[in-house]
Amino acid sequence: MPTIIVEDLAKLRSNSSIEGLTQSFLHHLKYSLGLNGQEVTTLDQYLAVSQMTRDRMIDLMVETEKRYADANAKRLCYLSMEFLMGRSLGNNLHNLGIFDQTQEMLKNLGADLEEVRESEVDAALGNGGLGRLAACFLDSLATLGMPGYGYGINYEYGLFKQEMSNGHQTEKPDHWQEDGSPWLIERPDEACLIPVYGYIEHATDRTGEYNPMWMGWNILVGIPHDMPIVGYGAKTVNYLRLYSAQSSSDFDMEIFNEGDYFKAVEQKIKSETISKVLYPKDSFEAGRELRLVQEYFFTACALRDITRTFERSGQSYDHFHEKTAIQLNDTHPSLAIAELMRILVDEKQFTWERAWHITQRTFAFTNHTLLPEAMEKWPVPLFERVLPRHLQVIFEINRRFLKKVASIWPGDPDRQARMSIIEEGPQKQVRMAHLSMVGSHSVNGVAELHSKLLKTKVVTDFHEMWPERFNNKTNGVTQRRWLLKANPGLADLITKKIGDDWIVDATKLKDLEPFAEDPDFQSAFRKIKLRNKEKLAQVIYDTTRYRVDPESLFDIQAKRIHEYKRQLLNIMHIVHQYLCIVEDGEDLVVPRTYIFAGKAAPGYWAAKQYIKLINNIAKVINNDPRTRDQIRVVFVPNYRVSLAEVMIPAADLSEQISTAGKEASGTGNMKFAMNGALTIGTLDGANIEIREEVGEENIIIFGLKAEEIYHMRATQSYDPWDFFRRNTRIRRVMESFNTDLFCAEEPGMFRWIFQTILDQGDEYFHLADLQSYIDAHRRAAREYARPDLWTRKAILNVARIGKFSSDRTIKQYAEEIWNIKGH
Ligand SMILES: *Cc1c(COP(=O)(O)O)cnc(C)c1O
């Protein structure tokens, strides 16, 4: 490639013509990568294109900051342990409005943007839905021109990479920043010093007031790394601020001076461990000290940053909550409540009442789970060792809170015990959800059903005390990533039909409705779906060596592997179909390809067994000449955002089959429907609202409702043996796990499933829902066999999915909780 020397850099960066982009690209090949005349690899091309893109974003970021400052705008800080960003290049090019030009520019130079984009590694700084939600929110905030900033951890290792070994999941480290990331801007000048550990000295001040002093702490240094977030239309660039932990050289010096060289080095290593790795469980895991330190570390860094920014504006702290909103993405960052109190009381000398007034008006809390085992709690002794002053602050918050509870409900010690931030018992624990609710002015669930169950089943006492605090914000996903970028074929077709307003206003997709039965539109729609399925078929072949038929019905369940998500129910249905063919001589209505993907937490034995079972079933079924033309089963390894972007546009059927009352919302369900898959699902989470939107004839619902399940639990009226005895099809499926049908080489391997389901009560109601699920699948197959009918339904799913744009979600948060607006 020729190199061109560039004279006017600033002018170049605002030049979005193909010539301008070419110059910018070549400039970076030479001056950022130091290449001149050598062979240019795809990775080099990726790095140069990214730098070219980043230049444009930085200029816009400076402009955006000035706009907000001039308006003295209120800011939203979104605190989250996880941001599942995936790849950035394609998204940034689309949002900057230079995607097509960049494609052309590279083509002219003999390169291919598609290939270049493939060399970007995912930023997998999250486990699943919660982290991906945060990423979608950042996209929407920037697109809406709102001052919204993400705060999190710059994990050196993201979520593990999943590999398969003899059908078992194995985990490999994801050293995603090995070669650095072009999207992160290090800001050592904005470093924060964070004290941790130590003890309290119970002193009094000059006036004789109790004046506790936090002594003997270690210092952590938090170095921010900013990832610019460009909104669609390139008007606004916000940023995601991710902190890396470093040890403090100053403090180490003290130990050095004491002559303990090894202690100093150990201390240094320990500090740098804090941002080393993301915890790979998508629910809470008790008692890990490092995890508590991580939570504290990034929250404390965020608060330093937020208060510093506020102080620069020269206003008094009494106005803090008028200029700052802080959203807690689950309880992980809830230490921020204690930290802000500590700053105001200890450092700014505010009275407790004044500090509490500000704190409570600043914070808002999002709950993400209904699973009791996922509720975060920390043992008091551990807490005291790591954060002695924060524990004191929490005790004082709790003392005042319980006094209020006692005044509302005098003589009700049970209620005080239930509501206390501190759980009594042999091991005292800090309940982070209680701290979050007490310290916030808003508590929201993430789908209508979830918010209702929170109020009526989970935290009823709190709802009784503060009904006005509770609200719902149904989750959403960004159509820019999940339709425009992931499914360019469909995006183009839509834009040709109804224009491109849907990119910033997903309700405009409604304009597609009149074309749902149009034969030409249907045929174009089907052709695109087929292309997407061919693309996925290629990925499946590359990663599993199984060949699948793109003309078959693609039935996909892609999400974390979890008992409550019931991959096992899906498996049971597949086994049922297999046995109907080989034992009863039946034929399927339509050939099917069952596609699974998802990671299991490394310590989650049952989930890992499911993966092995799926792989074993795939081997048996795919190699059985009696069924191989009718059913294929594949497990696609290493589910992640970039794989989701290939899988979701290729789906005909989307499996959303959690036990009713267990899935808070789900967002995978929204992405699939947005890409024209029909949902087969339970009345759980946002499935209920998806049904309301797309119409009940365009979704396939089955199974027990949440209320029915609550009732059966309460009355202990569910006995899986009843279903086993009465239903021969269910019995046959269950017995297959008790034999070695799917584990000839590992005898007895899946017998535990038979036992757990039948003898341990089937906690997730698989057998209670199985027949209903089988029936639902038959309905789905009969409809799929009529392409015009199916395509109509698929198109209507796309047309009516507008509500589930994260733009709508963010507008509601902005108006009803944050009181921020676009600038
Ligand atoms: C959307 C998404 C999820 C969440 O899927 P659910 O079906 O809502 O659990 C998890 N992982 C990735 C990579 C995603 O993109």
Automatic annotation (TrEMBL):
Entry's localization field: Cytoplasm
The name this protein goes by in its record: Alpha-1,4 glucan phosphorylase
Q: What is its EC number?
A: 2.4.1.1
Q: Which organism encodes this protein?
A: Sulfidibacter corallicola
Q: Name one GO molecular function term.
A: pyridoxal phosphate binding
Required cofactor(s): pyridoxal 5'-phosphate
Give the protein's biological function: Allosteric enzyme that catalyzes the rate-limiting step in glycogen catabolism, the phosphorolytic cleavage of glycogen to produce glucose-1-phosphate, and plays a central role in maintaining cellular and organismal glucose homeostasis.
The GO annotation for biological process reads:
glycogen catabolic process
Keyword set, alphabetical order: Allosteric enzyme, Carbohydrate metabolism, Cytoplasm, Glycosyltransferase, Pyridoxal phosphate, Transferase
Signal sequence, start to end? none
Taxonomic lineage: Bacteria, Pseudomonadati, Acidobacteriota, Holophagae, Acanthopleuribacterales
